[in-house]
Amino acid sequence: MTCSDCRNYRPAIDEVSCSLCDASSLRKRFCLESLLLAQPDRAFKGGMPGWKIKLLDAYIMRHLPSRIAIRDMADICALSKSHFQRMFQQCFGRTPQSYVTEQRLRLAQRMLVETSKPIKHIALECGMADQAHLTNTLKRRWNTTPLALRRTYELPPENAEPTRT
């Protein structure tokens, strides 16, 4: 079974992909790009089988706004918590917590650039505790702030005169 919008990117697993895709066109683009970016680096050998990776990716992307526990991810993969963490590290090259945080930051980056929502709302929609949590995490990981990201990629108004040089 595949999602009509995502079939080239992911199989639909119990409506996980589909529920992300049919919200709105902007959310759909976030979903498709996030699923593409969520691909693990294939240079790592071993780890989990591909179908478990896809299932786990879909679960993570669907639950980014809420708390994602390692125990829940391990249950999805039918592994113990400690074995799951070892397999995840081997497959993705980083810890599950680091991977989830990176996906949240990527979603926040897209929302900051493509929407005019207040930063505090974006932070909450991306699963951060508040605006300060998003700002501190962005500073620590990418050495930037939400406002700096938004200004860097800000598009000029449609009716603005082109500048002459």
Give the helices and strands as they follow along the chain: HHHHHHHHH
Structural class: mainly alpha
- Assign an overall shape: elongated
Provide mean pLDDT, rounded: 77
- Low-confidence residue ranges: 1-44
Count of domains: 2
Strand element count: 0
Distance between the termini: 55 Å
- What's the helical proportion of residues? 55-70%
Work out the strand percent.
under 5%
Largest sheet: none
Protein described:
The chain has 165 residues and is mostly helical. The chain folds into two domains: 93 residues, no CATH class; 62 residues, Homeodomain-like (Arc Repressor Mutant, subunit A), CATH 1.10.10. The chain has nine helices and no strands. The N terminus is likely disordered.
Features of this protein?
Arc Repressor Mutant, subunit A, 2 domains, 165 residues, disordered N terminus, elongated, mainly alpha, 0% strand
